[in-house]
Amino acid sequence: MYALFFMLVTVTCVIMMSPTVETAMREHIPFFTEMCNKLNAGENCSTLVGYSAVYKVCFGMACFFFFFFVFTIRVRTSTGCRAAVHNGFWFFKFVALLACCAGGFFLPNQEKFLEVWRYVGAAGGFLFIIIQLMLLVQFAHRWNQNWSSGVKFNKIWYAALALVTLVLFSVAVGALVFMIMFYTDPEACFLNKLFLGVNSGLCLVVSLLAISPCIQTFQPTSGLLQSAIISVYVMYLTFSALASKPVEMVERNGKNVTVCVFPYKSGLQSDTNIVTGVGAVILFGCILYSCLISTTKRSSTALQVYRNDMPENEVNIWCSLSDYDDEKTAGGQNVKYDERDGAIYSYCYFHFVFFLGSLYVMMTVTNWFHYENAKIERLLEGSWSVFWIKMASCWVCLFLYMWTLVVPMLFPKRFQA
């Protein structure tokens, strides 16, 4: 339900940033101009669209989740009144969310608010990216550990590990070749060549480090599968960064020619729609996956925000993998009561992730600091701020993975403990 609330507001923000939708509403809704005048929403409802409207709506959503973050601090059991509020009263919470989003339009001194709020959003959005990268590194280690442990029972897991590792490395190499072909040029795009060389070289370094004898001695479960996952993600971030960089032009045969651009941006409307659609799907998928996967108990423990002596069960926010028996309620519904001995995941951390996700949505939809000319149809067009943020994310991801490889060797006693 919280994810549904989050996605509804996100879709609303995307609609607000679309001039196409604004034009369609003005042309097809009867008495649109008169309705905007009665609502005091400006000419053609100008105050209800654009980056400022997205800032206000996301401010309301962020306040909603931040309130529940504070409200659920140190909730350890699902039997208390605060846990009951967290797990129920959906209609009232939906009304409260709507009220928070609408309240953003009535804030005083809005120019100053927008100036300050964008810096808060940038900090929160970048922190959301860091948490996302930490969870990715954790996922890579757990995948390799689970499949490696299966080797004790069935040797076919060796083949599964080798096959998946080979496929992932093939995807990473293929992505690198693709970017070299389309995002480099003999006469321009020096930064593209530099960062492609640096990022591919770092991927090679962490792959060799993962299978080095010194790392294997302290961390036997380390292998190429983790580095393959990280390499694919780094190549994706690199591609996304290069696609977000402002275009470069060189003079050839007396004409200015655009170089190092996405090959399907041929100026055709169909190509533009494809690029925009893929970008929106990736945006929604990454945000929703990051918010949901980071609310498991195991993920909370990995980020050191929730510690418990109970055996860990991998339980997400909608299903339970615990061994408790089913219970029947008075209404006859079968219920898996998965929090009998305590809250399985940290409620406050759950809401904190959605709070940061709200800020990330706000900054992404409004193209980070280039919000004045931001349109959702131009989400993948060039911006230096987006380029550097995504490129920095590559290096942070590689650093986090390298740190997880090296830390057992640097602190062997603490790691064993």
Keywords:
417 residues, mainly alpha, two-stranded antiparallel sheet, 4 strands, 65% helix, 3% strand, flat, lipid metabolism, lipid biosynthesis, glycoprotein
Mean pLDDT across the residues is 75
- Please provide the count of β strands: 4
Please give the order of strands in the largest beta sheet: 1-2
Distance between the termini: 38 Å
Strand content: under 5%
How would the global form be characterised? flat
Q: Structural class, please?
A: mainly alpha
Main beta sheet, described?
2 strands, antiparallel
Descriptive overview:
This protein has 417 residues and is mainly alpha-helical. The chain has 16 helices and 4 strands. The strands form 2 sheets. It has a two-stranded antiparallel sheet with strand order 1-2. It has a two-stranded antiparallel sheet with strand order 3-4. Strand 3 (327-328) and strand 4 form a beta hairpin. Helix 1 runs antiparallel to helix 4 and helix 8 (156-182) runs parallel beside helix 11. The radius of gyration is 24 Å and the shape is flat. Mean pLDDT is 75; it is low at 266-276, 302-337 and 374-380. One of its GO terms (biological process) is innate immune response. It is a multi-pass membrane protein. Keywords: Antiviral defense, Cell membrane, Glycoprotein, Immunity, Innate immunity, Lipid biosynthesis, Lipid metabolism, Membrane, Phospholipid biosynthesis, Phospholipid metabolism, Signal, Transmembrane, Transmembrane helix. It is found in: Cell membrane.
Helix and strand layout, with pairings?
Blueprint: H1 2-16, H2 19-28, H3 32-38, H4 51-71, H5 81-87, H6 90-103, H7 110-149, H8 156-182, H9 190-210, H10 213-218, H11 224-244, E1 248-252, E2 255-259, H12 269-293, H13 297-302, E3 327-328, E4 334-335, H14 347-365, H15 384-410, H16 412-416
Antiparallel strand pairs: 1-2, 3-4
